[in-house]
């Protein structure tokens, strides 16, 4: 996902006057939001607690696509959720609503519920990518998560959880969060929440029960080996680590970039400086599981690896036309030998970065073709704390190629089973990751 920060005022993204009604997004699978759902990743039994909302429920496919819908899919690569076009549909919709009110078997129907579903359908007919919701509705909770996530923070207890053999397991603990301060560890099992057993709960329900407002408490019944106890945690705002780094070879640093938030550029600078103090002279940046984020963050991060005035991307807006964005100054890391790992879950801001690195010959791309997400979204307010995430522009990378449906291609292609994106940074090992191993080997031949 790519958010244009110019569409917001005040603390974050600008909000235009409400112009649409409001559909409902599917319940979040997260205890917060990193900045973007990690769309496309096939992990139905796992949630990045404090991170990933679930995509909206898709509509059933119609059998016969219209000419217009087929042309849209052919040109832009969108995965259209429905494809029939009814002539005079606006009048037809009003007629259907009247018939429901007049003849439906139940005499009382929640019209807000029906309108919500209708607007979901409207947004589903706009640009969509398979496994990556582009135009969606955000309820008050999802909107709050998005605001926090793009700022590089979340509200929760600071754990990432997953289902392992029907047991809720802590996959990771966010440094500085309530869970880490309380001594909870990766691998601890959560058996209960506020006295309720979680054995029969789905992960979304577990997440919903753990989440809550900052300052409130939640009691987790935890098991570690044979020890069991209840840990009372006070929910709080937790800083998300969008950049993690370590040395993985002789002078080779590894940097995993999870998302482009307001804090990402500063995190990246600090991580590279830390690696240099440890003797790093060459760098691998892993974007294989990076779903994107804020436009401003993409420009800031990419510019750090380019020379002044080099093109980063071009935005295309139906009202403003084309706007080309360039690096404003010589980037501090423009001379650092660089390899960038990409794959089918590399999207949006991450694709802007990868395309610019390849176009300006600043590094080598290793892995598989990226997603091909060429849409820029803005968050537009509705009534009652709701909002829509709406595609308000498209972008072309530094290469000048439209990105919608066309991914960035690697210089060194290698199709390999994706390494576990949840592997703790301290356990990352090129010997267990062919794509990383190839990148390290390639950098080994660089001065």
Description of the structure:
- The chain contains 10 helices and 22 strands.
- The strands form 5 sheets. Strands 2, 5, 6, 7, 8, 9 and 10 form a 7-stranded antiparallel beta sheet that branches. The protein has a 6-stranded mixed beta sheet with strand order 12-13-14-18-19-22, with helices on both faces.
- It has 447 residues and is an alpha+beta fold.
- 47% of the residues are buried.
- Strand 12 and strand 13 form a beta hairpin.
- The radius of gyration is 23 Å and the shape is globular.
Provide the structure class.
Answer: alpha+beta
Proportion of residues in β-strands:
25-35%
How many E-type strands?
22
Tell me which oligomeric state these chains represent: single chain
Q: How many helices does DSSP assign?
A: 10
Gross morphology is: globular
Helix content: 10-25%
Largest sheet: 7 strands, antiparallel
Low-confidence sequence ranges = 5-81
Radius of gyration: 23 Å
Mean pLDDT across all residues, rounded?
80
Span between termini: 36 Å
């Amino acid at each position: 996902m790519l958010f244009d920060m110019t569409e917001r005022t005040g603390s974050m993204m600008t909000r235009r006057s409400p112009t649409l009604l409001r559909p409902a997004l599917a319940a979040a699978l997260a205890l917060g939001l990193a900045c973007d759902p990690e769309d496309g990743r096939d992990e139905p039994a796992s949630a990045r607690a404090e991170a990933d909302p679930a995509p909206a429920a898709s509509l059933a496919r119609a059998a016969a696509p219209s000419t217009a819908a087929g042309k849209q899919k052919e040109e832009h690569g969108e995965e259209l959720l429905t494809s029939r076009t009814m002539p005079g549909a606006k009048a037809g919709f009003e007629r259907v609503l009247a018939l429901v009110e007049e003849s439906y078997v139940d005499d009382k129907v929640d019209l807000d519920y029906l309108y919500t579903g209708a607007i979901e359908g409207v947004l589903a007919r706009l640009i969509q990518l398979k496994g990556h919701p582009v135009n969606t509705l955000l309820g008050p909770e999802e909107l709050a998560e998005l605001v926090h996530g793009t700022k590089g923070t979340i509200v929760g207890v600071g754990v990432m959880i997953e289902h392992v053999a029907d047991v809720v397991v802590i996959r990771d603990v966010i440094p500085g969060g309530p869970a880490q301060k309380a001594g909870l560890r990766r691998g601890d099992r959560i058996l209960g929440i506020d006295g309720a057993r979680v054995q029969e709960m789905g992960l979304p329900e577990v997440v919903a029960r753990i989440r809550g407002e900052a300052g409130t408490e939640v009691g987790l019944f935890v098991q570690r080996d044979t020890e069991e106890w209840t840990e009372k945690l006070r929910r709080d705002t937790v800083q998300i680590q969008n950049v993690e780094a370590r040395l993985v070879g002789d002078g080779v640093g590894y940097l995993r970039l999870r998302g482009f938030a307001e804090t990402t550029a500063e995190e990246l600078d600090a991580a590279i400086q830390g690696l240099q103090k440890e003797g790093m002279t060459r760098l691998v940046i892993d974007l294989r599981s990076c779903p994107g984020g804020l436009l401003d963050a993409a420009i800031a991060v990419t510019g750090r690896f380019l020379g002044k005035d080099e093109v980063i991307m071009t935005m295309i807006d139906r009202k403003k036309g084309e706007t080309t964005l360039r690096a404003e100054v010589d980037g501090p890391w423009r001379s650092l030998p660089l390899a960038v790992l990409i794959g089918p879950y590399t999207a949006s801001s991450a694709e802007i970065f990868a395309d610019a690195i390849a176009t300006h010959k600043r590094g080598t791309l290793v892995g598989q073709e990226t997603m091909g997400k060429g849409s820029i979204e803005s968050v537009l307010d509705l009534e009652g704390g709701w909002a829509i995430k709406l595609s308000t522009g498209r972008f072309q990378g530094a290469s000048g190629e439209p990105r919608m449906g066309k991914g960035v291609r690697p210089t060194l292609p290698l199709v390999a089973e994706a390494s576990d994106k949840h592997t703790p940074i301290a356990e990352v090992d090129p010997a267990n990751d062919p794509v990383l191993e190839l990148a390290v080997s390639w950098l080994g031949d660089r001065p």
